[in-house]
Amino acid sequence: MSLFGQSTSTVAPSKGTAADLANDRDVTSPPEDSISDMSFSPTADFLAVASWDKKVRIYEVSPNGDSQGKAMYEHQGPVLSVHWSKDGTKLVSGGCDKAARLYDLQTGQATQIAAHDAAIKGVRFVDAGNSGSQMVATGSWDKTLRYWDLRSPTPVSTVQLPERVYAMDAAQKLLVVGTAERHLCVFDLNNPGTIFKTMQSQLKWQMRTIACLPTGNGFAVGSVEGRCAIQYVEDRDQAKFGFSFKCHRDPSNPVPRSEVKVSALNAIVFHPQYGTFCTVGSDGTFHFWDKDTKHRLKFHSVPMNPTISSAAFNRTGSIFAYALSYDWSKGHQMNNPQYPNVIRLHPTADDEVKGRPVKKR
Question: Where are the domains of the chain?
Answer without folding.
Answer: 14-353
